[in-house]
TrEMBL record:
Keywords: Cytoplasm, Hydrolase, Nuclease. Transmembrane segments: none annotated. The lineage of its organism: unclassified sequences, metagenomes, ecological metagenomes. SUPFAM superfamilies: XseB-like. GO terms for molecular function: exodeoxyribonuclease VII activity. InterPro entries: Exonuc_VII_S (IPR003761), Exonuc_VII_ssu_sf (IPR037004). The keyword Nuclease applies. The keyword Coiled coil does not apply. This is Unannotated protein. GO terms for cellular component: cytosol; exodeoxyribonuclease VII complex. GO terms for biological process: DNA catabolic process. PANTHER family: EXODEOXYRIBONUCLEASE 7 SMALL SUBUNIT (PTHR34137:SF1).
């Protein structure tokens, strides 16, 4: 199975594509099949954005003073 190219996007690229998908979904004349395909793509893009944000948050929290495992066990 080939890797989904969406998962390799940066946060900024995924967010830009997600914004474009949302704009296209607002077209009331879009055929249902196209809407479903865009919705699925949007779900994958949103998941990539959430994953990238969670990773960035974890990295920042690791840098926060007192965030080492020693202080977590107190």
């Amino acid at each position: 199975m080939a890797k989904d190219p969406i998962s390799d996007l940066t946060y900024e690229a995924a967010k830009a594509q997600l914004d474009e998908v949302v704009l296209r979904l607002e077209d009331k004349d879009l055929p249902l099949d196209d809407m479903v395909t865009l919705w699925e793509q949007g779900e994958r893009l949103a998941a990539v954005c959430e994953e990238k944000l969670a990773g960035a948050k974890a990295r920042l929290e690791a840098l926060r003073p007192g965030s080492n495992s020693e202080s977590d066990s107190e």
